[in-house]
Specification:
Number of helices: 1
Distance between the termini: 64 Å
Number of strands: 9
Structural class: mainly beta
Order of helices and strands: HEEEEEEEEE
Largest sheet: 5 strands, mixed
Radius of gyration: 18 Å
Length: 122
Amino acid sequence: MKPIIFSLIFISLAFFSCKKNELGGNAVVKGVVKHHVKIIGNATVYIKFNAKEFPGTNTTLYDNKVVADGNGNYSFNCYKGDYYLYAVGYDQDVPAPHTVTGGAPVKLRNKETVEIELAVTE
């Protein structure tokens, strides 16, 4: 009886200690937000956990966000899993309202760094 209990405890701990699809892990997704060749500084980059397809433009559906620096650089530390990135920025060279958006899926493995040039359009 005891070996079965210990086996169940071990399996439960192994199952619940494996984190996927959340921030704070040792995998990194990073890159630059660009509208064609122009860098879009200070864009907001949203991340959706456990997503392979575009979740939509409603940013309240996303799980977290970062603001890119003035050079358009963004970065998330994550656990392995599937994510969707969605960026919203402003380009004064396009007609009003100057908003540019775009996104891309990303699959991360443990201890992997993935660089994505996040393309945004009108």
